[in-house]
Amino acid sequence: MMDPSHKARVLDMGVISTLKELGGDDEPDLFVELVDLFLEDARGNFEALRAALDGCDAQGVERAAHTLKSSCGNVGAAGLSAACFKLEQLGRAGRLEGAAQILEGALREFEEVCTALNSEKA
């Protein structure tokens, strides 16, 4: 079980609460479906981001980071969204120096977000 203060560090609990209310009584599993979809898509986008970075493809880094930034924000992962924004900016500028370190930090943060989101599904 994740410590509530740690969970609140990686997730905006206000966003989580809003997402949980979306389905109401009619769609009680909507939150679980949204989280599962986010986690699946994010893993694919992180793979695309890694491949673009490995291939020195600044435009690919920008695209994958932009997609991740938006989806992370949608599930309340503000810190992860901010890291993706930094990667997006580097890609847009065509300057990938330091991007590998930001990506490694983002991947660690993603694992914490995964843990937090999965504990919210329970």
Task: Give a brief description.
The chain contains six helices and no strands.
What does this structure look like?
- With 122 residues, this protein is mainly alpha-helical.
- The chain has a single domain, classed as Four Helix Bundle (Hemerythrin (Met), subunit A) (Up-down Bundle).
- The protein has six helices and no strands.
- The protein has helices spanning 4-10, 13-22, 30-54, 58-74, 78-93, 99-121.
- Helix 3 (30-54) runs antiparallel to helix 4, helix 3 (30-54) runs antiparallel to helix 6 (99-121) and helix 4 packs antiparallel against helix 5 (78-93).
Features:
6 helices; mainly alpha; Four Helix Bundle (Hemerythrin (Met), subunit A); elongated; 122 residues
Topology diagram in text:
Elements: H1 4-10, H2 13-22, H3 30-54, H4 58-74, H5 78-93, H6 99-121
> What is the number of E strands?
0
Structural class: mainly alpha
Portion of residues within helices? over 70%
Terminal CA distance: 10 Å
Low-confidence stretches: none
What is the third-level CATH name, the topology? Four Helix Bundle (Hemerythrin (Met), subunit A)
Mean pLDDT over the residues:
92
Main sheet record:
none
CATH class type:
Mainly Alpha
Quote the beta fraction: under 5%
